[in-house]
Amino acid sequence: MRQSDLHYIYLDGCNGGMRADRRLGAALWCAGLAAFSVLYAPQGLLTEIARDADVDPSRASLVVSAATLGLGVSVLPWAWLSDRIGIRRAMRIAAAGAAICAVSVPWLPSYTALVGGRFLQGIALGGIPALAMALLHNTATAKHATAMAGSFVAATSLGGLGGRLLVVPIADHVGWRVGLFAIGCLVAALMAMLIGLLPRPEAATHPRRSDASALTHLRNPAMMALFGIGALLIGGMIAVFNYLPFRLEQPPYLLTPDLVSLVFLAYLAGTAGSRSAGWLTERVGQRPILAMACLLMAAGGAITLAQPLYLVIAGVVVLTAGMFIGHAVASSMVAARAPSGRAQAAALYNISYYTGSSAFGWLAGFAWQHAHWPLVAALVVTLGMTACALAVVVRQPSDATAKACAGQSMTASRACSSSASGTSSTSTTTMPSSS
Questions:
Q1: Who contacts 23 (Cβ-Cβ below 8 Å, separation ≥6)?
Q2: Quick check: do 8-199 and 209-435 share a fold?
Q3: How many whole angstroms separate alpha carbon 406 and alpha carbon 409?
Q4: Residue 325 is inside which H or E element, if any?
Q5: Which of 2, 71, 290, 319 has the smallest number of Cβ neighbours within 10 A?
Q6: How does the average pLDDT of the chain come out, rounded?
């Protein structure tokens, strides 16, 4: 074959790889935007749902908690299913189920049915973040994998924020059910695009799995501490975002729901914080930054006790930044500390993270019911300080590879961990996205 023919074949292969990467990038954006917009959209509507369903705030928060709990418990089943039928087919099933739930759940007649529907919706949504990164590893070129992983996380952040912001003005005019249905229609369209855009992954060999790996991680005090930190931090943030609207719609603030929804813009501080986590850990170390992030959560919760609105908002910004920094560092440390059984370690962190979101988001409702915001803030401060205590007992990894992994993106961190152990990193389970 002539050299010129080889040159054209090479260029055609490069162009094909670029097209496949762009297709995969678009699919991941659809996945991130859709999954996390519908997951957290009801958070800005809890006051309206509570009034309409005649339930107390703690019961109203179950609309959010049920979905995150469903997502958490479905991580391992989706990983198991994808191992048997393929990642692409499993993601298509998840996307179709999520689309159906998105447009049907808002119309369930009773509050109990609504909570049950949201739990099923969370199970369907669990197949999106749980499999997206695995698809990325199997399909994207190595050159673009890390950047595309960061792009997916950005899409989840934008989806989580956008769902909270968009649904409130619609609900303010035509009711919360119509607002959720409108978001559901958008989500269904994005899921349909995701199904069409999903590329066919390359054939991959799955790593050997150790049935004892999960138990090994559960017996490791440092890993247990990291799992707990993730649960405590996300639980504190969800508690604030669930019940702060109830406070701001009462005297002396008397804000309308659409104005209260702007508080969710504090979420952008978390996005910036998670991006800065790598830079900070490279210069200071993982454990000090993790402890600092937990203290930020506690400090932010304490600041929200102030009466002036600008101080309340400042407190929310501080605790949100602390949560995202802490989550980024803790998830990176889990990846770096799992020389084997990384799939199980990631799954356990996922389960802990979303269970903490569900449990503490619900329990904070009882705090609001008994003593309103002072007790909610006290709970958030307690969660932050407990997480800080756990961060202090987590020892810094001594091996050079773990240090090199610190602060990197999820893709790079997992690849780094794989290099350290000499094993494959084609696991179908990933760390939770920063939403």
A1: 197, 199
A2: yes
A3: 9
A4: helix 309-336
A5: 2
A6: 82
